[in-house]
Amino acid sequence: MVLFPHRHLLGIKGLTQADITFLLDKADEAVKISRQREKKTSTLRGLTQINLFFEASTRTQSSFELAGKRLGADVMNMSVGNSSVKKGETLIDTAMTLNAMRPDVLVIRHSSGGAAALLAQKVSCSVVNAGDGQHEHPTQALLDALTIRRALGSLSGITVAICGDVLHSRVARSNIILLNAMGARVRVVAPPTLLPSGIRDMSVEVYHDMKEGLKNADVVMMLRLQRERMSGSFVPSVREYFHYYGLDAEKLKAAKEGALVMHPGPMNRGVEIASEIADGPQSVIERQVEMGVAVRMAVMEALLLSNNNGERA
Amino acid sequence: MSGITILKNARIIDPSRHVDEIGTIVIKDGVIAEAGASALNQGAPEGATVKDCTGLIATPGLVDARVHVGEPGAEHRETIASAARAAAAGGVTSFIMMPDTDPVIDDIALVEFVRKTARDTAIVNVYPAAAMTKGLGGVEMTEFGLLSEAGAVAFDNGRKALSDSLVLRRAMSYARELGVVISLSPRDKYLGNGAMNEGLLASWLGLSGIPKEAEIIPLERDLRIAGLTGGKYHAALISVPESAEAVQVARKRGAKVTCGVSINNLTLNENDIGEYRTFFKLSPPLRTEDDRMAMVDALNRGEIDIIVSAHDPQDVDTKRLPFPEAEEGAVGLETMLSAALRLHHAGHVSLMRLIDAMSTRPAQIFGLDAGTLKAGAKADVTLIDLDQPWTVARDALTSRSKNTPFEDALFSGRAVATYVAGVCVYTAG
Asked: Which of B205, B210, B278, B327 to mutate to probe the A interface, most A CBs <10 Å?
């Protein structure tokens, strides 16, 4: 029986509630492994994982690397800085070259939406989307879900307020899909310039006022605001943005008592979140990082073992 | 071409004379001698080539007013000769070639180069449009007078948006006296800086959107300037009904304006993009199904004057990329007619209007010797089998580039023979 009937993880879209629950349950197991002294298993021994990162990322890349290593896979990192991509080679050519080296899984991050899907059409191994432009970042949504489920017990019926630059956020898109699939209520809170067109039809409640949007929320999920979008192009200034949309103690009071504070990182302290909140008792930001490794272990195991179930199960 | 060719028993549809009847076309020395039910009642003369066209439609050769070619500069995508072969296969006997080549067609020598290359290598009529501004830079106007004398049939800024309204005003004033057409594809380069139609679909795909307003705003400006100067203006590619309406309103104000729509915007919509299919990344972008239907209605009412293929050959290196990075454009010379026939089969647009929009009307707008089967006209004729089923196979396309949005599409109807100046340049099968 195939427990996870997918060859690739390109997005949360396309996953059923059962798929998501399966991955989260598996990730719960992986958390235990990561908390042992002996962290290395032989689950994916002999398999090769290539991390292909066209966009700089320290945390996601290390998280995928560690996840692969903990499962016993051989992990290779490839980042744009030292590849031939700068010499004009296309994404597909790079991918085909790597594919010829017969990896079992390609983890890709790229600045363009659809890059992971494009790759998946051309290569013969599994592809995991580690973030494609403004489209999706499925492992981030899964790790957020795992963090919430472990803290609150369930995703069903809870209210999550996603705040900040929803327009440019792949994290927001993946989370909106996942949380809706799991029966949570999703709100978005942002100035109109940072919301995509048609947002009201994306199964969310839309707020432009932080306190209203946070009212009775179980989870407050902050998004990163890219530096180049802070001064005049999307919002007038950092000062004004923080004043209206930065999460500080005052605004957090509007949320349910003890509401979880989350952030996918890296944070801009004093822009979207005050330091005292980021480091405060309600923050689960570091916990999210820990869950990240577990979720990525779960994803790779699910993809690779269901692919090879004849030989390896 | 000397000699006599007779196409008999054809259903002749000639919008230039409002003719739709079974009859005969007599071609003598490359020119139409007669075309209609009463032609050749005395029987065929000795030595004539006679073709029985029973069951076929004969129309004036199709005219495609917007074709990008890669020559000079990107011959690996398309040469003038290969575009002409693709045109013939699609029933197109004349096309207007856009000036955004490398180098840009902004000089008499280049117009002459295109005409000479076309004369020597192309099997259909190729008319150059010259750049409206030098190097398409949007700053200095080109030599409209000398370029038209050399054979340029329109002045166009190609894929480039024209930002400076003062440049446009002067160009249109100057062009008015010469009677030449300024043709632009309205797109605001700031507001229009996106990858696909703005809306829910783009939002889910995480792609930046191009709102309708990115077309409507510069179009309204252009129409106002056309009114102000009295020059002839052609909105080459519009994609939303509000644009068709704006053109209509300007016409009522007395401006000499016309407009065109790409066959893609009449037969496809944004949902065809699916999961980032770059062959559907077009300019103007594919819009919603409601927009498409409204554009079909506007075409039907004659508010949209012409249909173009917007043929834009792109190679693997510009299309096999992530969606935001891929180039816009699709080939279309070979599929325009068949795609347009979908509108006929669906009962949305009459054959007369379709042929008018793909032959008679563009010939009138750009002053080409085409678009009619009246006696004395050049014998450019397209024979169409209205119901012949065929499937678009990418590798079977004549065009050097294969970026068709109609890959594997099933069509009913196609050109089965194409005549240019009385010479058969293409037969199907």
From this structure: B205
